């Protein structure tokens, strides 16, 4: 009998992205059909002011294979995800969460679900978000993405700042193909929220007023299931739009900084065990690896590092969250 799974996607003003999103998603679902059975794809529109809802209805007819169920919630990604989790009554099937503004690789769903089936200790398997290559003629935009998105294109360039091999013991017995075993043993311990798979819906314990579902889930899952329960598969790719401005990059990372700043103060994450995990979430660039790359790529990493440290300094001077960080009417395609 095939293992069942659900797809969950919050959607906020995604009209310009849905064509490519659904086209890639249906291919990934079809690729996974050999071993897995899709029960439903939940799309929850959360406060959209564009024609996202109309387009979802259109693609529901175009792609019956996805078994799309459209829901509505108030503004906020986690409000949308909480609404979806309430609608899913099944507590045994796997859950794949994918953002609506990405294009998912054909083999991504199959890789994530196969990892959960093969390694029973895993509770969450994260995918790897990679920036699409810029295909325009603007030198400025090409330079911006070459600098700001450089880590996504070279995932082995970033490692944990502390000792984390105890989180990645699975790499010793089951190496993955896209990265070296040595890298995985010192890689970051948290997954990215753009694409991940949960063993089942009971893992979802994120309050609807939180922003960082991935950060909250990382800490909550380690706290409940111990080290070694989360893995990132670097060959399960989803592709996002290349960065196009320094201001946009600032807003994204300001949101992340502010959310983690407040999240780490929550009462549920104050015991000694969780505080040690929080300490090990810090990452750094692996200059030993970076020096094996071309001189041009090394320059991009140097520029990125300067920008990162400047942002972090400014964030610490003003670690204040404002709604304007999430406020925009229409997303760029």
Describe the protein's architecture and organization:
With 333 residues, the protein is α/β, with parallel strands linked by helices. It has one domain: Spore Coat Polysaccharide Biosynthesis Protein SpsA, Chain A, CATH 3.90.550. It is 41% helix and 19% strand. It has 13 helices and 10 strands. The strands form 2 sheets. Strands 3-2-1-4-8-6-9-5 form an 8-stranded mixed β-sheet, sandwiched between helices. The protein has a two-stranded antiparallel sheet with strand order 7-10. Helix 1 packs across helix 4.
Keywords for this entry:
eight-stranded mixed beta sheet, globular, 13 helices, Spore Coat Polysaccharide Biosynthesis Protein SpsA, Chain A, two-stranded antiparallel ribbon, 333 residues, alpha/beta
Please give the CATH architecture. Alpha-Beta Complex
Q: Helix share of residues?
A: 40-55%
Question: What ranges have pLDDT less than 50 throughout 5 or more consecutive residues?
Answer: 323-332
Mass-distribution shape: globular
What's the total number of strands? Answer: 10
N-to-C CA distance:
40 Å
Query: With helices defined by DSSP (H or I, 4 residues minimum), what is the helix count?
Result: 13
Query: What is the chain-wise order of helices and strands?
Result: EHEHEHEEHEHHEHHEHEHHEHH
CATH topology name: Spore Coat Polysaccharide Biosynthesis Protein SpsA, Chain A
How many domains is the backbone divided into?
1
- Would you state the CATH class? Alpha Beta
Rg calc:
19 Å
